[in-house]
Design a protein that fits this description.
The protein has two helices and 32 strands. With 521 residues, it is mainly β. The chain has two domains: 220 residues, Sandwich (Jelly Rolls), CATH 2.60.120.820; 217 residues, 3 Solenoid (Pectate Lyase C-like), CATH 2.160.20.10. It has a 22-stranded parallel beta sheet that branches. Strands 1, 3, 4, 6, 7, 8 and 9 form a seven-stranded antiparallel beta sheet that branches. The longest helix has 8 residues. The two termini are 32 Å apart. 54% of the residues are buried. It comes from Nocardioides albus. InterPro entries: DUF4082, PbH1, Pectin_lyas_fold, Pectin_lyase_fold/virulence. It holds the Pfam family DUF4082.
Length: 521
């Protein structure tokens, strides 16, 4: 969501920033709704080396990981892509981090090239700059991860920020934009802009930030109690679709049929999201129940994994098939809450909350991924749910969309895809643009799917539709509410509807002067 100018502003005015130039273009905002990923050395390494199983050095979730094992943001086997930076001035390099549960920091580590020379010390700092521990690294010019253990472990806990750092007297490894987004692994979370530095031969508490650079410093954290993480167990594999998934563009124009999706005149005030009829999903019958165990975000690469009964802080990225996410409360400042590339991802009884204006979507399927979500409660991001081919959303509550000045809000999108179903949901866009449901656009690939028995409300147009082929679009038995705007959407209930090949029937007004009467496209 955020543009590159905003990212670059972190190091504004700093001379000789400690990070080598990027080897490729930085991410930029795309008005058309395409996937956004981080441009980091970790991602480059994953793409280039097929044997690496996890993105951004987030370890696979496994049930066999020992509770007392040392945790950090980066996987123990990670080999970063960049070489030593040409800057050879002495500098303290660090990473800000938080922990999701109590424990101890037993040391720090860093990744060094063979040309970086001897490193003097590693340190742990409080957020106010108090040095909590320090230790001297052994003299070693070899390439790889270098670790040091403190004489005494330091107790740390949730809700506080710490800094792990090391003094590099003659060079270091770095990658610009490596922390453009939060990175989380098990109990340790590095926020956006986590990389920090301070020049000087004696080092000191690092606070400067240059272009969200990653200096490949990590903490060695040991949880104090064996609090179980999400349960991961193999499940019987569901057969993948036998026919290939058709390629289709997920992009779309942001203009409305009237010339603009955003009204040119003063926008009406947006009241709090009105409650839908009790017969439709709401906060009381969606989301998790019971006790949830805290943990950080992760990348899942095990087919059939089950993540359950968890309170997750960060993004879940699914790169495996038949993964189940059940009874989870997820809070994210990343671009996505749950991003899946896997087939047959199931998400149920889960709440996803975006807490940053840069969050693009609560749930998104991409590059052949399919998702079936039910009884989910999604709020706080630009788009609630982005479906793809053969995906579904059922008995769910999408509301409270949020973003920045460049956002184009949609409760649910399925434009350009086929075989999707959006059934018995409450979908509210309390902004005066773009749509509660965006299911098609005549300028792009045709959509084929079913929008049935939903409470729909708000947006520039409540439903933004388009032509279909074959089975076409079926928009049936939905109720359109006027609680947000007198015409349901700011401009009206539906735009771009083409009757040929599509079905519109049984759709009625939920309230207002025409309550119970048909809604006509």
């Amino acid at each position: 969501m955020n543009n590159i100018d905003r990212m670059d502003g972190f190091g504004h005015g700093v001379e000789n920033p400690p990070a080598k130039p990027m080897t490729g273009p930085a991410p930029t905002r795309r008005r058309q709704k395409r996937i956004r990923t981080r441009r980091t050395a970790l991602l480059i390494a994953v793409v280039a080396v097929s044997t690496l199983a996890a993105l951004l050095a987030i370890t696979n979730l496994t049930s066999s990981s020992p509770a007392a094992a040392t945790e950090g943001v980066f996987d123990a086997g990670l080999v970063p892509d960049p070489s030593a930076d040409p800057d050879t001035l002495p500098v303290e390099l660090g990473m800000r981090f938080e922990v999701a549960r109590p424990g101890t920091v037993v040391g720090v580590r860093f990744y060094g090239e063979s040309s970086t020379g001897r490193v003097n010390t590693g340190s742990l700092w409080s957020s106010s700059g108090e040095r909590l521990a320090t230790a001297t690294f052994p003299a070693d010019d070899g390439l790889g991860w270098h670790s040091v253990t403190f004489d005494e472990p330091v107790r740390v806990g949730p809700g506080k920020t710490y800094v792990a750092s090391y003094l590099a007297p003659a060079g270091y490894t770095a990658e610009q934009h490596g922390f453009d987004n939060e990175v989380a692994n098990r109990s340790v979370v590095a926020p956006r802009g986590a990389g920090v530095y301070r020049y000087g031969s004696r080092g000191g508490f690092p606070t400067e930030n240059w272009r969200n650079s990653n200096y490949f410093v990590d903490v060695r954290f040991v949880p104090s109690t064996a609090v179980p993480g999400p349960t991961l167990s193999p499940q019987p594999s569901s057969p993948a679709p036998s026919s290939p998934v058709p390629s289709a563009s997920a992009t779309r124009s942001t203009s409305s049929p009237s010339g603009s999706a955003t009204p040119s005149g003063p926008a009406p005030s947006s009241p709090a999201t009105p409650a839908p009829s009790a017969t439709y999903p709401n906060a009381s019958n969606t989301g998790p129940k019971g006790t949830l165990s805290p943990r950080g975000g992760a990348t899942v690469t095990t087919d059939g994994a089950v993540i359950s009964n968890a309170r997750v802080n960060g993004q879940l990225t699914i790169r495996a098939d038949n993964v189940v996410i059940r009874n989870v409360h997820l809070t994210t400042t990343a671009y996505y809450g749950i991003l899946t590339y896997g087939k047959n991802t199931v998400i149920e009884d889960t709440t996803i909350v975006g807490t940053s204006p840069t969050t693009l979507a609560g749930i998104a399927a991409y590059e052949g991924g399919t998702v079936n979500a039910r009884r989910v409660n999604v709020s706080g991001m630009e788009d609630g749910v982005r479906l793809a081919h053969n995906s579904s959303l059922t008995d769910s509550y999408v509301h409270g969309l949020d973003g920045d000045a460049d956002s184009h809000f949609d409760g649910v999108t399925a434009d350009g895809y086929r075989g999707w179903r959006i059934t018995h949901n409450t979908i509210v866009n309390d902004h005066n643009q773009t749509a509660a449901v965006w299911i098609g656009d005549p300028r792009y690939a045709p959509s084929e799917g079913v929008l049935e028995d939903n409470w729909l409300q708000g947006g520039g147009y409540t439903v933004y539709a388009g032509p279909g082929t074959g089975a076409g679009l079926r928009v049936v038995d939905n109720v359109f509410s006027t609680k947000q705007f007198p015409r349901s959407g700011y401009w009206g209930p539906v735009a771009k509807w083409v009757g040929s090949g599509n079905t519109w029937t049984g759709n009625v007004w939920a309230d207002g002067p025409d309550a119970g009467k048909p809604v006509t496209p």
